[in-house]
Write a structure and sequence with these properties.
495 residues; alpha/beta; six-stranded mixed sheet; elongated
Length: 495
């Protein structure tokens, strides 16, 4: 048998079931027109994945079922569709006595619900908290779904939900169980968060499952950003197929895309690489940050632009380039806030970056503000404040200024700071630790430099001078960059 499978990298709106359902219907129509016979949406594509305690709401689950039956099922004439959703089972109970909930899926074909299934292995690491909201499916419930492909015959689809594919160190081997029960292929639906090594890890794992079972594997993943209440979680999409005769396909990362993948019975699955990728790690890092800034800006829907403190250092330079590419340079305000300790070198670099980007640029000195604060504090203390107090005072004054421009012009404050400094504790609360979003907060300092070279290889925006300038907060005379004095630790050692 031969058929066409469509893998859709879906960007769900967390909690907006009705909107997600309506968008799914649009995709189903587009897929049908392109000859897709089996269309696969990702894990929790109907409700969204990062929705917190909404997972436990009976009313929220009822809304999912209403959209499934009233909106999605009627749209599936002539096509089979798999979607991710919450599945309930009256025979099971949660610890609090509510009906059993499962991270699961629904298979719909030609206007009928064929079956619902459950996730067998739950994810409980990083930002994933499956066991807080869901019960485990059982190995006995791992059964291939028989799908009738019009005019071609029956296809036995083995469906795995995200963690079910990652069975290397578990007693239950879902992919192998489905193979033993007669599956013709494996379909894996995912809400798999992005990190820079994830592309390689997930493909290596998928290839192992394909080799072990001898079955082609079709992997679809959510894209977009979702919020777990304390962090923004990035999903990269990057749906892909590991099919026979070395036929490997991948959707573009950080985009909604319908990837068309053929299936053919009898494919040889012994000619597979250990790993493949069309994208470098730095390219994925750059795309993830630009994508996430743009998504956050658009999803919040309340800002008229963004504002950033542009110091002439590498962090603010990279953040400015990322933000300008994400929302457009015409929507970015760059503010340089010099004190007596800021060199002419960094001031010049900051202005040059803003001009090269084509952003609005303001110079807002802080010496007068700091002098007033120091005098007032000295009067209360009876002595001058310590150097450290004055250093942090400068950072907080700058943070306050950025928030004031934000208030006046309805701008999203982009915070500057990198993972190395935060791990070291070299940051000021309400100073450089502020803002609606902090793009480099999980990027080590040395990677910030590599990112700068990647985004601007010819130095048309970020000059080579900055790349070789010693990193410095320029908060005291001891941090004079022109004399080679910078931050009080070695970034190479810290990174």
């Amino acid at each position: 048998m031969q058929c066409m499978i469509g893998l859709y990298s879906f960007d769900p709106f967390p909690g907006d079931i009705e909107k997600n359902g309506a968008r799914m219907v649009e995709v189903i129509s587009q897929a049908r027109e392109k000859g897709v016979e089996l269309l696969v949406f990702p894990e929790m594509s109907l409700p969204g994945y990062c929705i917190g305690d909404l997972h436990a709401s009976a009313r929220f689950i009822a809304r999912q079922n209403a959209v499934l039956h009233n909106v999605i099922i009627p749209a599936t004439r002539g096509i089979t569709v798999i979607i991710g959703k919450t599945v309930t089972d009256e025979a099971c109970r949660m610890p609090d006595g509510q009906v059993g909930r499962f991270n699961g899926y629904a298979v719909i074909s030609n206007g009928k619900l064929l079956r619902e299934g459950k996730k067998t292995l739950l994810a409980n690491e990083g930002v994933l908290e499956d066991s807080r909201y869901f019960l485990l499916g059982t190995p006995e419930e791992l059964i291939p779904t028989e799908v009738e492909i019009p005019g071609k015959g029956t296809l036995r689809v083995g469906i795995l939900v995200c963690q079910d594919m990652w069975d290397d160190y578990t007693d239950i081997r879902p992919a192998t169980i489905l193979k033993e029960k007669g599956a013709d292929l494996l379909v894996v639906i995912n809400s798999s968060p992005f990190h820079i090594k994830k592309d390689q890890i997930r493909k290596e794992t998928a290839i192992r499952r394909a080799r072990e079972t001898g079955l082609p594997l079709y992997y679809t993943n959510n894209t977009g950003i979702q919020d777990i209440g304390k962090n923004i979680v990035i999903f990269d999409g990057s749906s892909f197929a590991v099919s026979g005769d070395g036929n490997l396909k991948q959707a573009a990362p950080f985009e909604e895309e319908l990837l068309l993948c053929p299936f053919r019975s009898g494919w040889a699955m012994d000619n597979l690489p250990d790993f493949w990728s069309d994208y470098s790690v730095l390219m994925l890092l750059e795309k993830s940050l630009v994508f996430s800034i743009r998504q956050f800006y658009q999803r919040t829907g309340v800002f008229s632009g963004a504002v950033i403190g542009l110091s002439g250092g590498i962090d603010s330079a990279v953040d400015a380039v990322l933000t300008a590419r994400a929302i457009g340079p015409e929507n970015l305000l760059c503010v340089n806030m010099p004190s007596q300790f800021n060199s002419a070198t960094t001031r010049s670099i900051a202005q040059s970056i803003a001009e090269n980007l084509g952003c609005r640029y303001i110079i807002h000195p802080i010496d007068e503000i700091i002098a007033t604060k120091v005098a007032a504090l000295t009067a209360q203390l009876g002595h001058e404040p310590t150097e450290l107090t004055v250093e942090n005072m400068q950072a907080r004054a700058r943070g306050s200024i950025l928030m004031e421009y934000s208030q006046e012009f309805n701008l999203m404050v982009v915070g500057n700071g990198n993972k190395t400094e935060f791990q070291r504790g070299y940051a000021t609360l309400y100073g450089d630790i502020l803002g609606a979003i902090m793009p480099l907060g999980d990027v080590p300092k040395l990677s910030v430099y590599e990112l700068a070279k990647r985004m601007d290889p010819r130095g048309e925006i970020i000059s080579a001078e900055l790349l070789y300038l010693i990193p410095s907060a320029e908060l005291s005379a001891r941090q004079n960059v022109d004399q080679g004095h910078g931050d009080p630790f070695d970034y190479f050692m810290e990174s």
